C-alpha cells in the first residue's frame, strides 16, 4: 500500500481532468467563503478546525497505524493554554503568536508524555489507554475550578492579533485558519514523504519487520505522537481564539471519535480524504439542519453504509495530493 | 462504621453486577471477532426501553403490574434485544468481516449513533421514570440498609451469569463458541458453523446487556436514550481490566471497577485530605486501568497472546 504507487487504470487525461476539477472546486469554495453571511463563515471555520485536527490525528492513525482515541486531550491543552494566557482568568494577556508557540511546545510535551508509557501497547489496548488519558484530562479540567473555571469554563478571552492586525471577526479567523491548514497540510504531506514518513509506513505495515530493518520504532512512534499532539494543540489555540470561550464540553470523547470517523470515512492516510470526510461529517448536519434529529439518524446510517461500501474511504490512499499535482502538470 | 462498610459493599456489588452483565457482551464479541462493539452500550439502553414498551403496551397500567407481568416484560424485552443484536450483526458487521480491524468498530459507532437518535425520535430525548421491578422494602442488616431492589439485582445478575457460564462451558453451543474464539480459521477448517457461533454471541451479549439495562433502570428509577454511553464505557473498561476475551475476567473486572468507584468515592477525600474530591473517582478508575495495562497488557485474567495470534489481519 505505498501511496506513491500510480494506478495504471486511470488514464493521464482523466486524472488531469479530475485534478483540475478538484483544485478548481477547492479554490472556488475557498475564494467564495468570505462573501458568505457570518453564520456560514463560522460553519466553514469549524470545518477548517476539524480538517486541522484530522490532519494531526491522521499522523498517528493513518501514517503510523496506531489507534488513538484520546486526541481531543491535545486539542484541550492548546485551547486552555490560550484561555489561561490571554484572559482575565490569571490576568495574563500574552500575544497570540507567542501563545501558539507555547501551546505547540506544551502539546508536544503532552504527546511525548502519553507516548512513552503506551508505546509497548498495540491495537485495541492502545486505543483504550489513549481513551482513558483523554477522559482523565477532561475530568481534571472539569474539576480544577480555581484554574480552569470548572464546568463553567473560561469566558472573555482576548481577541487574537498578529503583528497588530486584529483577528476576531469570522472572516479574519477564516483567513487565519485557511493559511494554517494550508501550511500544516503542506508540512505534514512533506513529512509523510520524508524518511520519517517511510519509517511510519513501515511500522504501520509490519512493526517487527520495521524493527528488523533497523528502524528505531520507539523514536519514530514518539515523533508521530509529538507531531500529532503539536498540531492538535495549535488547532486548540485557534479554536479558543475564535470562540473566545472554552469549556470542558468541547473536549469530550465524542469529539475524538468524530475525528477518527472523519479520517476513516474520508480516506485513511490521505489528506484529501480528511477534507472530504470533514466536509461530510461537519457540513452535512448543517445543510440538513431543518430535519433536526433526523439528520443525525441519517448520518449514523450513512456512516455504516459508507464503511461497508467504501472501506478504503471516499478518497482512497492512492489518490493523494501528489496525484493532484502530477495530474496538473501531466507528469 | 461496620454498617457503612456493609452498605458500601452491597452498593458496590449491585453496581458491579450490572457492569458485569454488560462487560460480558463486550468480552464475548471481542473473543470471537476481535472487535470492540461500541454499539453494545446501546443494547443496555434498548433493554430498558423495550421492557418499558412491553409493560405499557401489553399490561397497560404500570402501577398495578403483578410479578407475572414484570417477569414477562423482563424476558420479553431481553429476548427481543437479543434478536435485535443478531440482526445488527448481520446488517452492519458481517459485510465487514474480511475488512480491516478498524472497519467494524467504526461501523458499530454508526450503529450506536443511529440507535440513540432513533430512540430519541421515537420516545423523546427526555429521561423517563422507570417502574421498579422489585417491591421497595428495606432491610436493616448489621447497621447497614439493604433494599430489596439490590437483592433482586444481585440474584438476577448471578442467575444470568451462572446460566451463561454453564452454557459456555457445558453445552455444545458453548464448545462451538469457544472453538471459534480460540481460532476462527481453525474452527472453520474443522467444519464448525462459524456464523452460528457469532450469532449465538450476538444474541447472548445483547440479551445480558439488556438485562443489565432493565436492572439499572429499575435501581435508579429512570431511563434516557443516552444512558448507554457512560455505563457502556464503564463496562468496557471493566472488560479490558479483567482481560478482554475472558468471561471470568469480565466479571472480575466489573466488580473490581465497582469497588474502586465506591471505595474511591468514600476514601479519596479522606486520603487526600479533601484535595481530591469524589469527582475524581473516574480518574482513579482510568488510572488503575492504565496501570494494569502497563504492567499486564492483556488484563488481569487475559491470556498473554502472542502478537501473531492476536493480529491476524491489518489493523487499518
Provide an overview of this structure.
The complex is a heterodimer of chains A (331) and B (316). Chain A is mostly helical. Chain A has a single domain (12-329), classed as Orthogonal Bundle (ABC transporter involved in vitamin B12 uptake, BtuC), CATH 1.10.3470. Chain A has 14 helices and four strands. Chain A has helices at 12-32, 38-63, 72-85, 96-118, 123-143, 145-148, 170-192, 195-205, 207-212, 217-243, 253-266, 271-287, 293-309, 321-329; strands at 86-87, 92-93, 160-162, 165-167. In chain A, the strands form two sheets. A two-stranded antiparallel sheet of chain A has the order 1-2. A two-stranded antiparallel ribbon of chain A has the order 3-4. The longest helix of chain A is centred in the C-terminal third of the chain and has 27 residues, at 217-243. Chain B is mainly α. Chain B has one domain (2-227). Chain B contains twelve helices and four strands; from the N terminus they run ααααβββααααβαααα. Chain B has helices at residues 2-33, 40-59, 67-93, 102-123, 148-170, 172-182, 184-189, 194-220, 227-242, 247-271, 281-295, 307-310, and strands at 128-129, 138-141, 144-147, 222-223. In chain B, strands 1-4 form a two-stranded antiparallel ribbon. In chain B, strands 2-3 form a two-stranded antiparallel ribbon. In chain B, a hairpin with a 2-residue loop joins β2 (138-141) and β3 (144-147). In chain B, α2 (40-59) packs across α3 (67-93). The longest helix of chain B has 32 residues, at 2-33. Chain B is globular, with a radius of gyration of 20 Å. Residues 306-316 of chain B have low confidence and may be disordered. Chains A and B meet through α5, α11 and α13 of A and α4, α9 and α11 of B.
Amino acid at each position: 500500500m505505498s501511496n506513491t504507487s500510480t494506478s495504471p487504470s486511470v488514464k493521464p487525461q482523466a486524472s488531469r481532468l479530475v485534478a483540475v476539477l478538484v483544485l478548481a472546486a477547492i479554490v472556488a469554495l475557498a475564494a467564495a467563503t468570505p462573501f458568505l453571511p457570518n453564520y456560514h463563515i463560522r460553519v466553514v471555520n469549524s470545518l477548517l478546525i476539524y480538517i486541522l485536527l484530522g490532519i494531526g490525528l491522521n499522523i498517528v492513525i493513518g501514517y503510523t497505524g496506531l489507534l488513538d482515541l484520546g486526541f481531543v486531550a491535545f486539542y484541550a491543552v492548546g485551547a486552555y493554554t490560550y484561555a489561561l494566557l490571554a484572559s482575565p482568568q490569571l490576568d495574563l494577556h500574552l500575544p497570540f503568536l507567542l501563545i501558539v508557540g507555547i501551546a505547540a511546545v506544551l502539546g508536544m510535551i503532552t504527546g511525548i508524555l502519553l507516548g512513552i508509557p503506551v508505546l509497548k501497547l498495540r491495537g485495541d489496548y492502545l486505543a483504550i489507554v489513549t481513551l482513558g488519558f483523554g477522559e482523565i484530562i477532561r475530568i481534571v479540567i472539569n474539576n480544577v475550578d480555581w484554574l480552569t473555571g470548572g464546568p463553567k469554563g473560561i469566558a472573555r478571552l482576548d481577541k487574537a492579533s498578529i503583528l497588530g492586525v486584529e483577528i476576531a471577526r469570522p472572516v479574519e479567523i477564516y483567513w487565519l485558519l485557511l493559511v494554517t491548514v494550508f501550511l500544516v497540510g503542506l508540512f505534514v504531506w512533506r513529512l509523510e514523504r520524508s524518511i520519517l514518513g517511510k519509517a511510519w509506513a513501515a511500522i504501520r505495515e509490519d512493526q517487527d519487520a520495521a524493527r528488523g530493518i533497523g528502524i528505531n520504532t520507539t523514536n519514530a512512534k514518539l515523533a508521530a505522537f509529538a507531531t500529532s499532539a503539536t498540531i492538535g494543540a495549535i488547532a486548540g489555540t485557534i479554536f479558543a481564539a475564535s470562540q473566545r470561550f472554552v469549556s470542558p464540553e468541547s473536549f469530550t470523547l465524542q469529539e475524538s471519535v468524530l475525528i477518527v470517523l472523519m479520517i476513516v470515512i474520508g480516506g485513511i492516510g490521505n489528506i484529501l480524504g480528511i477534507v472530504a470526510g470533514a466536509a461530510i461529517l461537519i457540513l452535512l448536519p448543517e445543510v440538513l439542519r431543518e430535519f433536526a434529529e433526523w439528520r443525525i439518524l441519517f448520518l449514523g446510517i450513512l456512516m455504516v453504509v459508507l464503511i461497508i461500501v467504501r472501506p478504503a474511504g471516499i478518497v482512497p490512499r492512492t489518490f493523494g495530493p501528489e496525484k493532484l499535482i502530477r495530474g496538473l502538470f501531466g507528469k | 462504621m461496620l454498617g457503612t462498610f456493609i452498605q458500601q459493599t452491597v452498593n458496590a456489588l449491585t453496581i458491579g453486577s450490572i457492569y458485569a452483565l454488560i462487560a460480558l457482551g463486550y468480552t464475548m464479541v471481542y473473543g470471537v471477532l476481535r472487535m470492540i462493539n461500541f454499539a453494545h452500550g446501546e443494547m443496555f439502553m434498548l433493554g430498558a426501553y423495550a421492557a418499558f414498551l412491553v409493560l405499557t403496551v401489553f399490561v397497560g397500567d404500570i402501577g398495578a403490574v403483578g410479578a407475572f407481568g414484570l417477569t414477562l416484560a423482563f424476558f420479553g424485552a431481553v429476548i427481543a434485544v437479543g434478536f435485535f443484536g443478531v440482526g445488527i450483526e448481520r446488517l452492519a458487521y458481517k459485510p465487514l468481516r474480511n475488512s480491516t480491524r478498524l472497519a467494524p468498530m467504526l461501523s458499530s459507532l454508526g450503529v450506536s449513533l443511529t440507535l440513540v437518535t432513533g430512540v430519541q425520535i421515537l420516545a423523546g430525548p427526555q429521561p423517563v421514570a422507570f417502574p421498579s421491578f422489585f417491591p421497595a422494602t428495606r432491610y436493616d442488616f448489621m447497621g447497614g440498609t439493604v433494599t430489596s431492589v439490590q437483592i433482586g439485582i444481585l440474584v438476577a445478575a448471578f442467575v444470568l451469569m451462572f446460566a451463561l457460564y454453564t452454557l459456555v462451558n457445558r453445552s455444545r453451543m458453548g464448545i462451538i463458541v469457544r472453538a471459534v474464539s480460540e481460532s476462527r480459521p481453525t474452527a472453520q477448517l474443522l467444519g464448525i458453523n462459524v456464523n452460528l457461533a457469532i450469532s449465538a454471541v450476538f444474541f447472548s451479549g445483547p440479551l445480558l446487556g439488556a438485562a443489565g439495562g432493565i436492572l439499572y433502570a429499575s435501581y435508579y428509577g429512570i431511563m434516557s436514550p443516552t444512558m448507554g454511553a457512560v455505563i457502556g464505557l464503564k463496562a468496557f473498561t471493566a472488560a479490558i481490566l479483567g482481560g478482554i476475551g475472558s468471561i471470568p475476567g469480565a466479571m472480575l473486572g466489573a466488580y473490581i471497577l465497582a469497588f474502586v468507584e465506591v471505595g474511591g468515592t468514600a476514601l479519596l477525600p479522606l486520603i487526600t485530605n479533601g484535595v481530591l474530591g469524589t469527582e475524581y473517582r473516574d480518574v482513579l478508575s482510568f488510572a488503575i486501568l492504565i496501570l494494569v495495562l502497563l504492567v499486564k497488557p492483556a488484563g488481569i485474567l487475559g491470556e498473554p497472546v502472542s502478537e501473531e495470534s492476536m493480529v491476524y489481519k491489518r489493523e487499518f
